[in-house]
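Hi R.,

As promised on Friday, here is the backbone we talked about, encoded as structure tokens. Could you run it through your design pipeline when you get a chance and send me back a sequence?
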């Protein structure tokens, strides 16, 4: 029987660590690296059943995709029920989510002391900044996580330092507290192999398409318990009317909970352009120098040349703001460069980006262009087939063949060859969330 076993769970001050053992058929999805997460608050007094939540939030979707059972000594009873609800949502979304049961020797119903604190996952992008504006009256604690778009590798230290500095400055300016979480949640699982097996079924990567709603929220559980945080929000990426297969949606995130804390999927009622409108109103009324950070390539500012920078700059203009005042070097001449890059397939775009450009196009149809360059771009965008912009960005055949080979390769051969090929050849660029 396929199985994953959580064992040797320990908590020292702000550090959580455990190991994961699995049956032979799942070995290719789990590395020899222990699971680790660190917090800037002590978790030494958090019950083991809550300490188990971060690792369960990462491995359960992998188990469900393989019909495997998961074993743990102790788990919070509320979270165990939440996992059943999340699994049901994922199984409705994906045919490959095939079941599997969580078995615990003990379930617990602790009695935490709640403080009324509201946490918000925050990067300073469009989505999380909009959520901050909507909830600013609650002075939410801004939570930033290292482990997905910024890896725990030393090579990413500068990017993490830049994000911490920027979020801390934002919090100081807006009278909020911060919480920083660091985890190896992507490297203790073999994400290249997960991608090799499941990329054919999903529009993005494993974590973005399947795991990140449950995974990111679950990482916060020991910290939230230690702080008495009773509400935890994650900003929506998509919006009502977009039925994309995506790892963070209301029918996933709204199910996530543990004793003392409920999670929420925020601003799903607003399109991305409408979220920019919320930010624009806030800028005009209260915070004229507000800076956003959404870049695919940098964390210490916006490059102004990647697809997300261009998309955000155009959206800011459509909301009546000047992009250069809010972190985006953008001029009229950039409209022509943007069009050439979209037509030329310079960026890997999926259905996610298609819907966001369609949202921009809807607003363009209601907007009078301010300059000839803007008029030319708006006219082009109104007439272009957005599906064609997506199709020119398909991954090369060599990548698809490699993934097919990896799915069927013996573990020993894969473990030696595939990660090295990925590191040396693909140069795949990480895509950053707006959150």
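Update: got your reply. Pasting your designed sequence below so it's all in one thread:
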């Amino acid at each position: 029987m396929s199985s994953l076993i959580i064992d040797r769970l320990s908590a020292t001050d702000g550090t959580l660590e455990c190991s994961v053992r699995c049956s032979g058929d799942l070995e290719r999805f789990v590395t020899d690296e222990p699971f680790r997460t660190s917090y800037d608050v002590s978790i030494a007094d958090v019950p083991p059943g809550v300490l188990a939540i971060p690792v369960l939030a990462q491995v359960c979707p992998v188990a469900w995709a393989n019909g495997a059972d998961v074993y743990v000594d102790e788990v919070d009873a509320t979270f165990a029920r939440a996992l059943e609800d999340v699994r049901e949502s994922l199984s409705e979304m994906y045919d490959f989510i095939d079941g599997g049961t969580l078995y615990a020797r003990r379930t617990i119903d602790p009695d935490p002391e709640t403080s009324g604190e509201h946490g918000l996952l925050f990067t300073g992008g469009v989505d999380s900044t909009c959520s901050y504006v909507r909830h600013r009256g609650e002075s939410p604690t801004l939570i930033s996580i290292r482990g997905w778009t910024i890896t725990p590798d030393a090579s990413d230290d500068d990017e993490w330092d830049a994000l911490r500095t920027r979020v801390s400055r934002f919090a100081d300016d807006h009278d909020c507290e911060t919480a920083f979480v660091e985890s190896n949640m992507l490297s203790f699982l073999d994400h290249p192999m997960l991608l090799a097996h499941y990329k054919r079924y999903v529009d993005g990567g494993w974590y973005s398409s399947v795991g990140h709603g449950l995974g990111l929220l679950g990482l916060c559980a020991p910290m939230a318990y230690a702080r008495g945080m009773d509400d935890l929000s994650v900003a929506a990426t998509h919006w009502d009317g977009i039925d994309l297969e995506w790892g963070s949606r209301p029918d996933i995130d709204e199910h996530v909970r543990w004793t003392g804390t409920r999670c929420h999927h925020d601003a799903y009622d607003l399109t991305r352009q409408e979220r920019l409108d919320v930010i624009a109103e806030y800028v005009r009324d209260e915070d004229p120098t507000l800076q956003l950070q959404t870049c695919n390539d940098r964390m210490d500012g916006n490059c102004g040349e990647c697809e997300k920078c261009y998309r955000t700059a155009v959206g800011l203009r459509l909301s009546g703001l000047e992009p250069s005042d809010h972190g985006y070097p953008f001029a009229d001449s950039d409209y022509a460069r943007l069009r050439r890059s979209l037509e030329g397939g310079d960026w890997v775009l999926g259905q996610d980006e298609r819907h966001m450009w369609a949202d921009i196009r809807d607003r363009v149809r209601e907007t009078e262009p301010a300059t000839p360059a803007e008029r030319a771009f708006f006219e082009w965008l109104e007439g272009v087939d957005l599906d064609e912009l997506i199709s020119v960005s398909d991954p090369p055949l060599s990548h698809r063949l490699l993934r097919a080979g990896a799915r069927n390769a013996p573990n020993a051969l894969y473990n030696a060859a595939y990660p090295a090929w990925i590191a040396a050849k693909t140069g795949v660029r990480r895509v950053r969330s707006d959150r």
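One thing I noticed while checking it: The mean pLDDT is 91.

Thanks again,
M.
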